[in-house]
UniProtKB/TrEMBL annotation:
Keywords assigned by UniProt, alphabetized: Transferase
Spans through the membrane: none
Residue ranges constituting the Glycosyl transferase family domain according to the UniProt record: 195-352
Stated name of the protein: Glycosyltransferase involved in cell wall bisynthesis
A Pfam short name: Glycos_transf_1
MF GO annotations: glycosyltransferase activity
Source organism: Xaviernesmea oryzae
Matching InterPro entries: Glyco_trans_1, Glyco_trans_4-like_N
Domain Glycosyltransferase subfamily 4-like N-terminal per the UniProt entry, residue ranges: 15-176
Amino acid sequence: MRKRIVFHVPSLRGGGAERVFVLMANEMAARGHAVTLFVWNAEGPNAELISPKVKLVTLGLAIHGEGFGKPATLKGLARSATFLRRERPDVVFSAPEFANLLTALALLIGGCRAAFFPSYHAAASLESNGLGSRIAPMLTRLVAWRATKAIAVSSGIGRDLSVGGFRDNQVAVIHNPLPPLHRRNTTPQPWQAALAAMGEGPVVVTLGRLVPVKDHRTLLKAFSMLDPARKCRLVIFGDGPLKENLVAYADELGISDRVLFPGYVNDPAVCYAIADLFVLSSTSEGFGNVLIEAMAAGVPVVSTDAPHGPREILADGRFGALVPVGDPMALAGAISQTLAEPRQASDLKMRAADFSIGVIGDRYEDLIGERA
């Protein structure tokens, strides 16, 4: 049965939750549903991924730093309630964490009786900063009361939600989908020339925001411990507030001539195409989309055993080494071992297929069908 579906994320910046919702909006629209992607700000690299079949609605609120600020947040809440009252959707999906709280309020204020599926993408996912940290504890039970079901992108997050106020039978574990990895840009980029100028040798790659939770410092330290005779090169894709700090740390470690910081690249296929190994060094991961992307490209992976997604994705280490969080020596050892004895690309691709967008789309439609 055709449903009127709203997917809500605050913006279309480069975060994992935003990309997931654009992909799922596209998939639900391709299946014949009437899909609206509702955002407070439509700027960001994920905007170019939206299917023509998806209706985009934006409030046009300005982003300041990493958020909207208190006055704009209150304005966005009021306008969201008006939007939901007017549109009267059958189903509303929201993400990430603080947006779920605001969406629950908007549904109540707007008198919208849509099925509500808040989606949680981060470990200890009900935590937030500033205004969120003060009101989230009070609103958690409101979200649980209003939610038809909560979506946890890993079993670990599902357990967090059960502890945080959701009933066990109110949580559905649905992993993030594997995005299409077709190269969208074949024009040579400046960073590719810079990488070639570093000479020959295996290329170790990581993708992610340059923020503390990704723990790039541990990766840099581990990389500095590798045998120089291997002539490995490290490419850290992503932007963020720690870039200058990390560049300085690479210089301090004496590896700056073998480390490249190309910034954010909105074409993951290009990133994996140059990789001999992918490394995730996070201290915490709700899921770890980049692991399945790398595996789908046939690239061997090494990951910290961060809560919660990597262990689920890698099947307890069957498809890639898992090392303790914040342990550069263990990480260096796993990198060396995997470069010497990489797993078969065919096995990695087969595992990645378990997270195909078709499989995940079926799970989303199952949720919709569960509502009477």
